[in-house]
Amino acid sequence: MRPSKRQPDEMRAISFERGISKHAEGSCLVRFGDTHVLCTASLEEKVPGWLRNTGKGWVTAEYGMLPRSTGTRMRREASSGKQGGRTLEIQRLVGRSLRSVVDLQALGEVQITVDCDVVQADGGTRTAAITGGFIALHDCLSWMHARHMIKLDKVLKDYVAAISCGIYDGVPVMDLDYAEDSTAQTDANFVMTGKGGIVEIQGTAEGEPFTDEEFQALMGLARKGISRLIELQKMAVG
Amino acid sequence: MRPSKRQPDEMRAISFERGISKHAEGSCLVRFGDTHVLCTASLEEKVPGWLRNTGKGWVTAEYGMLPRSTGTRMRREASSGKQGGRTLEIQRLVGRSLRSVVDLQALGEVQITVDCDVVQADGGTRTAAITGGFIALHDCLSWMHARHMIKLDKVLKDYVAAISCGIYDGVPVMDLDYAEDSTAQTDANFVMTGKGGIVEIQGTAEGEPFTDEEFQALMGLARKGISRLIELQKMAVG
Amino acid sequence: MRPSKRQPDEMRAISFERGISKHAEGSCLVRFGDTHVLCTASLEEKVPGWLRNTGKGWVTAEYGMLPRSTGTRMRREASSGKQGGRTLEIQRLVGRSLRSVVDLQALGEVQITVDCDVVQADGGTRTAAITGGFIALHDCLSWMHARHMIKLDKVLKDYVAAISCGIYDGVPVMDLDYAEDSTAQTDANFVMTGKGGIVEIQGTAEGEPFTDEEFQALMGLARKGISRLIELQKMAVG
Amino acid sequence: MRPSKRQPDEMRAISFERGISKHAEGSCLVRFGDTHVLCTASLEEKVPGWLRNTGKGWVTAEYGMLPRSTGTRMRREASSGKQGGRTLEIQRLVGRSLRSVVDLQALGEVQITVDCDVVQADGGTRTAAITGGFIALHDCLSWMHARHMIKLDKVLKDYVAAISCGIYDGVPVMDLDYAEDSTAQTDANFVMTGKGGIVEIQGTAEGEPFTDEEFQALMGLARKGISRLIELQKMAVG
Amino acid sequence: MRPSKRQPDEMRAISFERGISKHAEGSCLVRFGDTHVLCTASLEEKVPGWLRNTGKGWVTAEYGMLPRSTGTRMRREASSGKQGGRTLEIQRLVGRSLRSVVDLQALGEVQITVDCDVVQADGGTRTAAITGGFIALHDCLSWMHARHMIKLDKVLKDYVAAISCGIYDGVPVMDLDYAEDSTAQTDANFVMTGKGGIVEIQGTAEGEPFTDEEFQALMGLARKGISRLIELQKMAVG
Amino acid sequence: MRPSKRQPDEMRAISFERGISKHAEGSCLVRFGDTHVLCTASLEEKVPGWLRNTGKGWVTAEYGMLPRSTGTRMRREASSGKQGGRTLEIQRLVGRSLRSVVDLQALGEVQITVDCDVVQADGGTRTAAITGGFIALHDCLSWMHARHMIKLDKVLKDYVAAISCGIYDGVPVMDLDYAEDSTAQTDANFVMTGKGGIVEIQGTAEGEPFTDEEFQALMGLARKGISRLIELQKMAVG
């Protein structure tokens, strides 16, 4: 039995609250149950040095957690003077995932930065960041489309969403919350597109190594979950 | 005429949304019009070194802005590797202001950290942080009171709130928004208590120096505004 | 009775020793009693990025304390790897104060950096830094005037000086030394110009909040003290 | 055809040169073709704070690249003042992988740090680091066993090795070198144990998303390759 | 002919101004011509970790230059976030030199930090720092002697001073000023004790390598100069 | 008797292993007994700012120690966030030494960075770095000569090598290993050219000051040792 009483293949309540920022070109407060991530997409003229004068654009992401988004207050990264390894790892993952559905050539020489700030954490912040970050990115591109800066359907090639799956108490389950995540034997994050392509797989044995069969079960759950997430994304922005 | 069409002595719409964090002992999303600051108060066992074994506690504050809380995206302080001078200045001010109404001896040897994170900025973030931070602090102390850790009325000596006033287009006005703040000749922040005591005054001439008369006018407006803010605080937590 | 036996409205002995640096365009060792601050004004061709090609110049300030300027040796900021919040706050204040009397357009596209290094501290280092920094700035502008780079009287619009006042043992007093500063209930710094304009007011209740009447008393003392400081500045550079 | 003329399921020449450090308790220079990583395992008495007085030990890893281990000289991380995101990500992976085969309780309250320094890079540095780091760790544990500090077979539960697989020019291939890695559509790293358990899977679509079938092909190759690597490890330390 | 018209073996005017700090246990403003270094010696109870509970003390030094001590303003090291290589090199040298004449066992478990801050630079700042730092150290030890904390003559074993010599325009000269230092072919710093022992020699060919004969000539000059400096130290503290 | 049973004027076994890097333009693994330093010379188009458009090039060096190159594991400098004083001091010395034999004008506007990474330390790492760094630099210049970018004999003016000498147990000895270095009373490093010119002398009394006679003895040994090292360099690259 899961702590939340959910079925093994049952996701938490998912919601997307769009347009929550007065300033950002695209924004979304995404909720996976008690995990809440504020995503904003900011359009900037300047691109990274290696893209200058190539006509190609860039999509990047940054990730942060508010100090008391967690059960125990964490030290503020701005105050400790650097971003930790986990932060850097997550923001690289979010950036790669979002870029996988963008045609950077069609975007033109601009940069979109998607900031994902966790205001409340209860497990699965990186998958929520990718799934909600997509909505913010979409809305930023719509904003540009409305101003004739791009053609939305040329730049945005597909939907992309992410979910975590894991072996909890011997059973493969979908969308782990913190209570499950902190005790799961195995934890895997999957990023997939609307057409079913795989963008990223990260599976980690927390204690004992896992088997092929277990991994295939997690992958099956992920496919099911992501397909549901993408339906919800379509309802949100459709 | 103010850009927002407000009267010179008219504050923006103020609201306090309490209990918005599942984890923090006290929390509040405070809104001064389009300025939104998320405040959490976190109780911790450890105190700063110089208070160890004194029986006295501490209240401190940290301040941050989400990168796209502003019109143009700012660099994330965690990524630039340090907190800027403005951030340090504001969090020192918020900490001093909140401590002015707490009996640190009666609090006992614990620390409360009030995190003020600006999710949307439209001028006056420091005054919103103090005013909303007070609510989060109050609720944290209530939480402790309910667990017989302290007596709320022994520890919390008074209310405290803050407002900015300035000379806009030659007229003294209350609670400047960004459009006013960025062009005001003079800008002053006032922090006062429920009993009318002054905790902090910070007045700055942005262009021309200001006169005694102008300053007295600002101070009068501030007294009026803060008294209204404290009424609203009382309604929120009373 | 003040620890120094001074009258409530009695300043410490003030002196300006000009031209103490062989290299700087303007320099001054200012003494407020046992508080000694070495001020140098350095002319540089480059301006901050946002002023490039605007024809406008800039005046900025930096502040530091020698490690043993204080009763107990402090850690060197260069060795701890960053400037603390107090340092940043003070140097921002000194810069704003000096800019308030300079016509940046008439200065032309150059930068003057006023370094204020405390060689011995006994309270009131920031007010000494502003008051002595003005002399260094004046002498740098004279140096430029003598070389036909500017017209001194077009660029320098007024005098500017600063003083701290506070409530010590229930009595409003002027120009607090360390013994007073460390126990004062209320501490306020005032920056004013030769024509009597107010540039900056910073008042802080260290313990109990203060009243309007107390604040007005401090402000009255400040006006008296600053007017005396500006007389001394005039004697020094006149 | 692969740039190196290897068959799709052909690994590069692998070698382990043990005992290459006079000082370290265990050490190994591992070569995967032209990728050379120097691994040392250092025994230390102190453990991280959260393990103090628990009787449990810790195994951790650090990773670095010499500035000219790559085709173009990279900036030295010690000089730029921080370890980049990629470095932190890799050393966290190496640490997790090595811990997966160690009984930390049986190790006792000591820490082993495995340093993996790339002296020459030609793709696959993280998989070489894990595979060679295991040898250094093994030899450190043997050193402790010889001194009756632990029982080797109680502490070291299994072998562990890693390999990268990818889709190069449409074909799934094993053990990518730099020429392949920099142009592969998909790149996945696998970490597995001697008993066939999966410790970590990291698959990333560099360009187009990949399919289930492609991923299964990579996983099949990885199983084959890792099983060969573990045979080589056994020959090295058996 | 030297730019300063001095004879090859002629030092600049040397002076020691003692007791210039109200707070420090020992202090000295040393002048080698236009090179002025403010030296303070601070007594602290705590010693570095590796000396704790050994009964032995420590003498260390820190070095800094005020930003406008030089012809062109330098960036403040506290603001750039780290001490440069030259600064670290000099403060290590000053510390070693002063320790060479102190019996750390007889000093007892305390630390003396000698801060050397260059207020005006004209070449030879490190030799002035050592020579003047000795006076500050001496006076700090006298202060301790007067309080029966140590026996001065047991702790301070000898005098120590330093001078730079170099080949300027083909001629070996003593005590180089900036005009000479910046064009000298060879530059050497010597640290010696009152009894004539050598503590440190640092010779560097700036352009062409130098010969044995040249080096011996510099060493002869140094011996002469240091012996004069030590006479002056004796007059100052004797 | 020396711990290694060597004669006072006997060097450790010296070897140069060239071409050990697939990527670097010049490279050499130098061994002074158990001290092993990996040196690579990297050619880069960009020069430091102050040389831009002067037609002159630059040679610089960087130095690092692998964390377990020493008896006890040291903290990785990349992880501690800065290079220590000793590291900066050594890399400045290596750079100066190598530049002393290069005609920077004839080199043309390029930069060569010589990285010296200590893979195993047993005393004398800086002298090994200079001596081996020369070989890497030579081979980089040969690489450029072969591509008609420079004339080797115009750019490289001489050989350069370095050795440490010290007073061990009262006897002047050559090429100290760690056992000697850590207990020697006096330690001096000498850098000289093939023609016998002196490039750098650094002598330090670790305990008691040393005498002229002792220093002359060390210098005599150094001359003998360096002359032997340069013979070995000639055999290596001749």
Automatic annotation (TrEMBL), chains A, B, C, D, E, F:
InterPro entries: ExoRNase_PH_dom1, ExoRNase_PH_dom2, ExoRNase_PH_dom2_sf, PNPase/RNase_PH_dom_sf, Ribosomal_Su5_D2-typ_SF, RNase_PH, RNase_PH_bac-type, RNase_PH_CS. Its EC number is 2.7.7.56. GO terms for molecular function: 3'-5'-RNA exonuclease activity; tRNA binding; tRNA nucleotidyltransferase activity. It is an enzyme of class 2 (transferase). Residues 10-140, 158-225 form the Exoribonuclease phosphorolytic domain. It catalyses: tRNA(n+1) + phosphate = tRNA(n) + a ribonucleoside 5'-diphosphate. CDD domains: RNase_PH_bact (cd11362). The keyword tRNA-binding applies. GO terms for biological process: rRNA 3'-end processing; rRNA catabolic process; tRNA processing. Phosphate binds at residues 86, 124-126. Keywords: Nucleotidyltransferase, RNA-binding, rRNA processing, Transferase, tRNA processing, tRNA-binding. It comes from the Bacteria. PANTHER family: EXOSOME COMPLEX COMPONENT (PTHR11953), EXOSOME COMPLEX COMPONENT RRP41 (PTHR11953:SF0). Phosphorolytic 3'-5' exoribonuclease that plays an important role in tRNA 3'-end maturation. Removes nucleotide residues following the 3'-CCA terminus of tRNAs; can also add nucleotides to the ends of RNA molecules by using nucleoside diphosphates as substrates, but this may not be physiologically important. Probably plays a role in initiation of 16S rRNA degradation (leading to ribosome degradation) during starvation. Belongs to the RNase PH family. Homohexameric ring arranged as a trimer of dimers. This is Ribonuclease PH. It comes from Nitratireductor aestuarii.
